[in-house]
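Morning, I've got a small favour to ask if you have a moment. I've been staring at a protein lately and its backbone has me curious. You're getting the sequence in one-letter code plus the fold written as tokens. I've dropped the whole record in just underneath, so have a look:
=====
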Amino acid sequence: MKAVKSKADDERRGVDRGERRLIDLEEARAVILAAAALAIFLYFIKLILLPFLLPAVLAYLCTPVLDRLAARTRWPRWLFAVLFFLVFLGSGALFLDFAGTRIVAEARGLTGDLQGTLERFVRDAIGSEPVPLLGHAVDAHELVQGLLDKLRDWLGQSDVLVTLTGYSLLTVMGAFLMAVLLLYFLISGHRLAGGIFWMVPPHRRALANRIWQRLDPVLTRYFLGMIVVMMYATTASYVGLKYFLGIEHAVLLALLTGILETVPVIGPTSAAIIAGLVSLRTATGFMSIIDYALYATALRLSIDQLIGPFVLGTAAHVHPVLIIFCFLAGGIVFGIPGIIMAVPVALLIKSTLATLYGDEAE
């Protein structure tokens, strides 16, 4: 009798395991199909993603703070949302007033002697003697002059001017749109998130909730960490370039360093090369090159070994090769929005697979 009961229990457990395995497969198939449909949809609307993406990230980071303030004070949540919005607008205006004028002045100084600067760079690279190029011997002056002439001819074309004017207008309209969307996202972010969650089929909402519970803290720490890394890279590079190396255009180079820091490996390398080329303009000898090498090494080590791991934490636990692939793939398919979404999408895929596989130690 006991043997028959034990055999029946084993058969029931086998059936339960088979049903759970079938459910897991169905959930994985549903997630893959939903992800593919979402990717196709985003590809067709990629031209309008950027004005929505940046305000959404900022509102996402501010939402817990707004909820906490509203719960403690019992004041309307929209009041704090409007206050935050005004703070962001004021901060942006102060930044444009303080840093914008300096950036414009430094950009003018950099482009005012653009030909001389480029000639010095080319002369340092190829030497002072003419070099053969396509059957002709050219020196640094002729090479740079030819490039600048082609650039002036290209900028003088009517279609190019129309294109640049169109991009300028789109930039102004995009900035206004982002401000409006930021206000909407701050005030009604919960309703928008609830609407997105409502689109998930009812029998899949428990799975979606488990995935989000795993993803939310990692995603928050990643965005906050990237902001801290950008601020640190901008400040540290400005101090090093301005006061340690005495390089001109330190503000412009520091902002460029902070922005490029968001792109792992490729961005910091590009920023270091650009700043190194500019530093050659004021280099007085071999010791100047040594000083720049020390500055670049100290900045890189402080970000990679101290600031980055500390502020990113578990959000940084994605292999660099995968991150580089995501950045390149996202940039090719979606442009700048793809670069911004690269690591969050990688974290979403990782959290989804860990939830489906039941990997709680992930």
Observations:
- Residues 151 and 160 are 11 Å apart (CA to CA).
- The longest strand covers residues 131-133.
